[in-house]
């Protein structure tokens, strides 16, 4: 689980790649070769508020879109730890590209909850891109053969390139919410898979950071979706370790702040090699103040990174050994995930302060973009204090409240 983006493998240069790889090691190797290209395109990605087509193709050839697809379908089937590493590598190139990758590669996760017959229709290619919101801000009225869904959803990262669009709804029957026969909850939360061209996409993504993720709103009214294209995250249809608990879509998320923090430290170290204190003339490489800042950042990043990978490995071991009660492991991974986001923000801010006035110029320093990116990603639900509250409730033997599905209560607090 190396932190650098350099790669000495035999995969060759990106322009020589022919087709996406089917092995995890190849995907990670190609990601290390792709990261410098993402870094070169970072300003273009941000200015365009979406990924350029050539970057979409690059990520596809890297194996990102198929990263979570099962081996039985020809996919590399990355473990949760490998998914984190993949995003960590990509984020060292560009955070928006990594964020799009994180969302789009959920194709291999969502497909594991769909009806097996519908999967062949929806995911006829393992390199398809998925976008969409998981939090249920829509309604689904039961009708013969399926549902009619209506609503408006936010934060659909990579929607401009999506092949499949997910929309989450609360199910109604004759206008009244119905209970969930799977979980026993009074409200039934379902996710619906459809085509992006069936929705209206709203150009709303004018934001502080992660501008290149193109996370626009989308809406629809009375769209018919067949029963087979609806699913619940509480009932996987594939017997895969990855799907043992419904937090699979979130386990990989800390790779992005970890990668961004790594890039920020490396950049600051490079800058320090040519800087002197303005008043004393002391080289930064000999300045104890600079030494302490860099050392503290390295310490905090390594601690946060170790927590993420160790907690995920413990959870994965529980999956593979068939452990029944995984609440403790899910709490630990949720806390490590939260801590990774918060630590990355602290590191980027500290280094931004260290570099002083030069860091404010967007054309001269990536820190302007990094500071905005890390603050924007920390607005996500997984980085909110509600995670701490839910973890505390579980640790004290209680059941954390969740307005949708208690199965996700530890890892999916309500959207802010």
* CATH architectural designation of the largest domain: Up-down Bundle
How many β-strand runs?
Answer: 8
Helix content: 40-55%
* Alpha-carbon Rg, integer: 22 Å
* CATH top level class name of the largest domain: Mainly Alpha
Largest sheet: 8 strands, mixed
State the CATH superfamily name of the largest domain: Butyryl-CoA Dehydrogenase, subunit A, domain 3
The CATH topology of the largest domain comes to Butyryl-CoA Dehydrogenase, subunit A, domain 3
**What is the tally of helical segments?**
13
Overall pLDDT metric: 93
Distance between the termini: 33 Å
Low-confidence stretches: 403-416
Order of helices and strands: HHHHHHHEEEEEEEEHHHHHH
What structural class do helix, strand and pairing data support?
Answer: alpha+beta
Question: How large is the share of residues in beta strands?
Answer: 5-15%
Shape: globular
* Total domain modules: 3
Can you give a write-up of this model?
- The protein has 416 residues and is an alpha+beta fold.
- It has 3 domains: 14-110, Orthogonal Bundle (Butyryl-Coa Dehydrogenase, subunit A, domain 1); 129-231, Butyryl-CoA Dehydrogenase, subunit A, domain 2; 241-408, Butyryl-CoA Dehydrogenase, subunit A, domain 3, CATH 1.20.140.10.
- The protein has 13 helices and 8 strands.
- It has helices at residues 24-40, 42-48, 53-62, 80-91, 95-104, 107-110, 116-122, 248-251, 255-272, 288-321, 327-355, 367-377, 386-395; strands at 130-143, 146-156, 164-173, 176-177, 189-194, 200-202, 216-226, 230-231.
- Strands 1, 2, 3, 4, 5, 6, 7 and 8 form an 8-stranded mixed sheet that branches.
- α5 (95-104) packs antiparallel against α9, α9 runs antiparallel to α10 (288-321) and α10 (288-321) packs antiparallel against α11 (327-355).
- The longest helix is centred in the C-terminal third of the chain and has 34 residues, at 288-321.
- It is globular.
- The model is unreliable at 403-416 (pLDDT under 50).
